């Protein structure tokens, strides 16, 4: 479930508090100056999801007996590690890089999506690679480099915020507010109903967190008023935020819910999220919810 922030001594919780402190230090004056019937209000909350719906960074190692059923046409592949160790595996035709990754996952417990396989002239790090690994006789030498986890997917993000908490109203207030103004209804009684609503946003803008992607989203808000661009000091603050996220998270994301500021009744809103898998606790997803609001 989402962490409520009670265990302040936990490393993950300390990182979350540092994120909130960093956010509060950013001067949003030019954003707040965007005025319609009222000036803009900037809301921010952070959450920890310790059982996030994200792929594990390790898997159970399959018993060594799994290699005993070698077929006549299996190919021997020697894979060198960056540690200096090597491992010998057998793969079946058509000798795909995908098969190498699957065998290494079974023998080493390193998920395929974290493996980068290097041959003499090419680097293959997809699961659906169709290139053969070499001649059909003799052994082939490859190198495996363990890479950082990629950005979470939008589906993983949505499943995490929906299924990992019991009550949005008390645990994820900004998500609760998002649902309420988007639907003008009470939160559904079942998680599946809530997820069906969340899936409407499966194609929302989702990119790596950078100064550019963050400022581009905020540009949309500035453009509703007398757009003057972002002060240089503000870009520097966002750069500091990017550095913090990259230090503490694997491949942090920036998620923009609506294509443009969302007008409803007499309000104008924007909803955005930053999210990243914590390096200190790789099964935990840290999320920051950002909302801009003013009356129109």
UniProtKB/TrEMBL annotation:
InterPro entries noted in UniProt: Ubiquitin-like_dom (IPR000626), Ubiquitin-like_domsf (IPR029071)
Domain (Ubiquitin-like): residue spans on this chain: 75-150
UniProt protein name: Ubiquitin-like domain-containing protein
Species, as recorded: Durusdinium trenchii
């Amino acid at each position: 479930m989402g962490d409520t922030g009670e265990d302040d001594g936990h490393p993950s919780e300390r990182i979350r508090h540092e994120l909130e402190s960093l956010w509060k230090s950013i001067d949003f004056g030019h954003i707040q100056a965007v005025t319609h019937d009222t000036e803009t209000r900037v809301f921010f909350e952070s959450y920890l999801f310790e059982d996030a719906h994200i792929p594990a960074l390790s898997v159970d190692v399959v018993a060594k007996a799994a290699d005993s059923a070698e077929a006549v046409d299996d190919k021997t592949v020697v894979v060198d590690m960056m540690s200096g160790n090597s491992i010998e595996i057998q793969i079946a035709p058509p000798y795909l890089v995908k098969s190498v990754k699957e065998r290494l996952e079974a023998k080493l417990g390193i998920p395929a999506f974290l493996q980068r396989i290097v041959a003499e002239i090419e680097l293959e790090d997809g699961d659906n690679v169709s290139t053969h690994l070499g001649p059909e006789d003799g052994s082939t030498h490859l190198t495996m480099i363990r890479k950082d986890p990629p950005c979470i997917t939008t589906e993983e993000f949505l499943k995490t915020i929906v299924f990992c908490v019991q009550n949005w109203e008390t645990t994820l207030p900004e998500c609760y507010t998002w649902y309420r103004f988007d639907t003008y209804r009470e939160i559904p009684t079942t998680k599946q109903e809530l997820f069906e609503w969340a899936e409407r946003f499966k194609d929302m803008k989702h990119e790596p967190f950078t100064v550019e992607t963050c400022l581009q989203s905020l540009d949309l808000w500035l453009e509703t008023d007398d757009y003057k661009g972002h002060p240089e000091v503000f870009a520097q603050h966002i750069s500091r935020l990017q550095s913090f996220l990259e230090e503490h998270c694997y491949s942090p994301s920036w998620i923009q819910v609506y294509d443009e500021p969302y007008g409803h009744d007499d309000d104008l809103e924007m909803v955005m999220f930053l999210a990243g898998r914590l390096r200190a606790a790789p099964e935990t997803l840290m999320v920051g919810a950002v909302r801009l609001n003013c009356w129109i």
